[in-house]
Write a structure and sequence with these properties.
alpha/beta; Collagenase (Catalytic Domain); 5-stranded mixed β-sheet; 3-stranded antiparallel β-sheet; 26% helix; 15% strand; binds zinc ion
């Protein structure tokens, strides 16, 4: 999930000056460290190539989406219809399969504050309230779940995750930035962030991926039309007009709470 600004005063300032709220201002030159070949692969996958972050053995695009090298290599082998539309609900080609299915959400490492822990429970409850074919349960604190949440010390994003695997499993890790696990932020905010990242893990793309300025401010930036790679497939029954409340919007503010709205529920119900 995209960069959150600490105060409203700074929020206004940065929204005015940056294309998106994705990164700290220190990351504007990140692209210099990433080869053109890799950027071409990212582009071929259908993602935007602005402000790509290199971290460990992977890249982070669109603010919070992890791409591994195998994702880049697989990108050239997939084809689908190009979809251009307004602000709607989109999913990746890969989805979680084997429904009905229980997804265990664990944590690991230090830094899981009480509030963040409560938020994880809150996010699980939001999904489970929808009566989906996926049931989320809270696991232990030593990792090993289908989705494991860990706190990381980064200033480059609020949280990050990836998309389901080609074998139909959810993406296995959510990294949550330490800064945003503090009591400075509300439990509803944290719940929204965790639910958003869980959304990526089960195959949701950003609702406003085709123009993230909708939620991020700044100039219009298309995160990428996925004619190849992970895909951006329209979910039937979701609106063609802007949906200001969707939990899968790319950016949020320090006080944002986005429980599932009716369109989100339609999208969730359609997929799962
Ligand atoms: Zn996101």
């Amino acid at each position: 999930m995209k960069k959150l600004i600490n105060t409203f005063a700074v929020l206004t300032l940065l929204f005015a000056g940056f294309n998106s709220c994705t990164q700290d201002d220190s990351t504007t030159s990140i692209n210099d460290e990433i080869s053109n070949a890799v950027l071409e692969q990212i582009k071929a996958l259908g993602f935007g190539t602005d402000n790509v972050i290199k971290e460990d053995d992977h890249y982070i695009v669109e603010g919070d989406i992890i791409l591994h090298k195998r994702d880049l290599e697989e990108g050239a082998h997939k084809q689908t219809l190009l979809r251009i539309a307004g602000v709607e609900q989109y999913h990746t080609f890969n989805l979680v399969t084997g429904l009905p299915r229980t997804i265990v959400v664990t944590t690991s490492g230090s830094g899981i504050t009480t509030r963040l822990s409560n938020a994880i429970n809150g996010a699980i409850a939001r999904y489970n309230a929808e009566g989906l074919g996926l049931t989320f349960v809270r696991g232990g604190t030593s990792g090993g779940g289908n989705i494991n949440i860990r706190v990381v010390n980064t200033r480059q994003y609020i949280a990050s995750a990836g998309f389901p695997t080609s074998s139909g499993n959810p993406y296995g890790t959510i990294s949550y930035a330490k800064t945003y696990a503090s009591n400075t932020y509300s439990e509803n905010f944290m719940t929204t962030v965790v639910a958003h990242e869980m959304g990526h893990c089960i195959g949701f793309r950003h609702t406003d991926w085709m123009n993230r300025s909708y939620s991020c401010g700044g100039s219009a930036v298309n995160e990428g039309q996925s004619t190849t790679g992970v895909g951006a497939v329209l979910i039937p029954g979701t609106p063609s007009g802007p949906d200001s409340g969707s939990w899968m919007l790319a950016c949020l503010s320090a006080t944002t709470n986005r429980p599932f709205n009716n369109n989100d529920k339609t999208a969730l119900d359609y997929l799962y």
